[in-house]
Fold:
Amino acid sequence: MNIKSIVKNDVYDALGGEVLLDEIVIEQPKVKTLADYSIPCFMLAKKFHKSPMDIANDIKSKINMKNYKSIDVVSGYLNVFISDELLNSKLKRMNDNSFDMESVSIPETYFLDYGGPNVAKPLHVGHMRTAIVGESVKRIIEFVGHKTISDVHLGDYGLQIGEVIYAMIRDGVSVDDLDINYLDKTYPEMNAICKENEEIKEECASIIKKLQDNDPKYIPYFKKIREVSIADIKKNYDYLDVHFDLWLGESDSQESLIKSEELLNSKGLLKSSEGALIVDVSSSDDKKEVPPLLFKKSNGGYLYASTDVATIYDRVRDYNPDHILYVVDNRQEMHFTQVFRTVDKAGLIDKSKLEFLGYGTVNGTDGKPYKTRNGDAPKLFDLFNQASEVFISKREENKNMSKSDVDKIVNSILKFADLSNSRDKDYIFDLAKFSDVTGKTGPYILYTYLRINKIIQNSNINDFSNIIYNDADRDLRVKLIEFENIINLAFMERRPHYIAEYLYDLCVLANVFYQKNHIADLEDEINKNDWIYVLNLTNKVIKQLLELLVIDIPTVM
Structure:
């Protein structure tokens, strides 16, 4: 049982079991000198018709003190410091039993849809968030004991495919001659042309419609474009250590588009509107207008929403997941509201099992979406190289690092910068700042781990005593026991930034501990062993949290 739960149960017992456990709130004060845990008694006061001070004093007089070092009542709060014995027993269990995490009673299956790159388009900085956030959320879900299935869900049936096929035919580029360089050059060019020339845009849309109808003329082009694109996408995602169980795309739901349409028809959900087929998904309690879902265009072509409905049809049929999570741009929230309501009304899956995990944009120091000097969103691999150059330029010694170590540090720079921000918020991408070994950065976390590792390596670590030697020692130990609460919070809210914040705070306390407690100079072997034990557990926690944030540890910094 975690310490918070122990405190809650002790308060419950002190109140004679006359409240629900959920009515007891346990907080952790920002000012650590006030208490390890604080129990606000204001809501309890209303229940018992007493003042908060009286309730707090009642609890203090009746609580079992064996778990506490001291208890004070301050302004309606019950402030407690847990006993050294309780604190150290938890640390021992964390060290001996895989962090002493409570196992889930009923493991569930979570299907995660993240990545979502469009075939034929180069990956750019905007694709980084979905990949990193999705991979981290997946690892957190697995760590607490659930099963995951991940799908990259390629955008491979959009207008961009028609644009590239049009250009290949125009330029006389054969299927065998297509490479990533042609794709990188052609998509931006055709995209610009289609914005100016409606006739060519219509021709490209016509190609997509014919492709959806399995026109044999276009299938070889489509397969080659997909093949070349996926190879490049995998190269980028491999660098980020982002991996998927499934590499399916919109095109893989082709057969289920017809079945989904038949299902919607059988439920009386499809309505004709100017030749198109729509689904009314509005609700009487909507605070803003929710437009109908456009399932099929007047020319018979299917859209992004259609393939998303069909994809859910496939996922429910093939995997029957308990939850389906979509890690996508905040700007797609309305789209997924329409899709979730459609499949719910069709009886495919209850919308409560579908989750929209929106993320914000990556902005430059000017507050606008991050761009290169010529105004384009930087390609992802160019960003990797840029981050590498910035880090190497920080110190002369960095030039002698192995490529493997530099790549791991680059990953830490990009991922910690991203994941330390709440996923739904925009953030300012400042590569120079994020590359520093000081401050709230990935390199700082890696530096702390390697610094501790240097102290504890080759040490024989024995069991430790119940002695806590000073404030820096106690602060670090108390922070360590927050591990399970932070993991559960990140899991429940699907927000890795809770882990990143905790990890940074832990590293700050570990460095304070290191500066104030000189282990190498100690003659007291019990004290020395105790501190090595605590630092060893600290590094176990840091390493595990870095893994959940998709960050590997280099050999040197």
User: Anything to note?
Assistant: Residues 525-548 form the longest helix (24 residues). Residues 3-82 form a domain with the Gyrase A; domain 2 fold (CATH 3.30.1360.70). DSSP finds 20 helices and twelve strands in the chain. The first strand starts at residue 37 and ends at 40.
